[in-house]
Design goal:
Elements lengths: L17 H6 L7 H24 L4 H16 L1 H4 L9 H15 L1 H5 L13 H9 L8 H27 L3 H7 L12 H8 L3 H24 L8 H13 L2
């Protein structure tokens, strides 16, 4: 069995994507369901939080709303009618959140605040990030799209960093991580190879593999949130459109 942690995802990734596992929560709860939903929630909590804030809710209300929404999402009956084939996970989330804000928040307001966290929502960090958002340029929906793209890229970046650290290559990743942003040309290969004491051809190959693995992880992460392989390219285009609008 190949144990290289940086191999491409298996061709059958769509049989066990996070999204498909989450949908099964409507039928039977399981540790796999909770883990898959937790991974998705960790990527999407800030885009949803910022969306609620842009809708006009105060910070403490947005915190409560986001936590309560994810609590409802974890409930079996809340996911019972979800059909993964009818949309992407982020579209489902935004539709469900809007429904929650309109129809269910009145009930949630009567509950005692601070009844337990479903996702790890760092309120101070969230408000710091929200304070950096453009004030007038983006609608709540456009802001959600942009934050979805940034959160997904951050998730992929952290995955790649952990892989290199597991291979005792954390220092190399730290030196080369700027190559993932498209700014590689700002530092000539000759200068970089001298700094790293690495032959230039070896360095070029190393950078190529770093970028290639980043793209593989990005595609795999997007695959977790769509229904079929045919939707990956369109979702990637949506991601890059959202980033271009930032």
């Amino acid at each position: 069995m190949n144990t290289d942690s940086r191999q491409s995802p298996a061709p059958g990734v769509f049989a066990t994507t996070h999204w498909s596992v989450v949908v099964q929560a409507g039928e039977a709860a399981s540790p796999q369901t909770s883990e898959a939903l937790a991974q998705l929630c960790n990527t999407y909590w800030y885009p949803l939080y910022a969306y609620v804030r842009r809708k006009g809710y105060a910070a403490h209300d947005a915190q409560d709303l986001t936590q309560e929404f994810f609590a409802r999402l974890l409930a079996r009956n809340y996911l019972g009618g979800v059909d993964r084939r009818k949309g992407k996970f982020r579209s489902f989330l935004l539709t469900a959140l809007n429904h929650f804000l309109v129809d269910e928040w009145k009930k949630a307001r009567a509950r005692k605040r601070g009844g337990g966290q479903v996702v790890s929502l760092n309120a101070r960090d969230a408000e710091t990030r929200f304070g950096r958002e453009p004030v007038d340029a983006l609608t709540p929906e456009r802001l959600f799209e942009q934050n979805w793209a940034l959160s997904l890229l951050d998730t992929v970046y952290c995955q790649l960093q952990r892989e290199y650290e597991r291979d005792d290559k954390g220092a190399l990743f730290h030196e080369l991580k700027f190559c993932l942003t498209g700014a590689r040309s700002s530092v000539p290969y000759a200068s970089l190879s001298a700094r790293l004491n690495m032959p230039e051809n070896t360095l070029k190959t190393t950078v190529h593999r770093l970028r290639q693995r980043y793209r593989e992880l990005l595609r795999a992460e997007v695959a977790h949130t769509v229904a079929s392989a045919g939707e990956i390219e369109e979702e990637l285009r949506s991601l890059f459109r959202a980033l271009a609008a930032s």
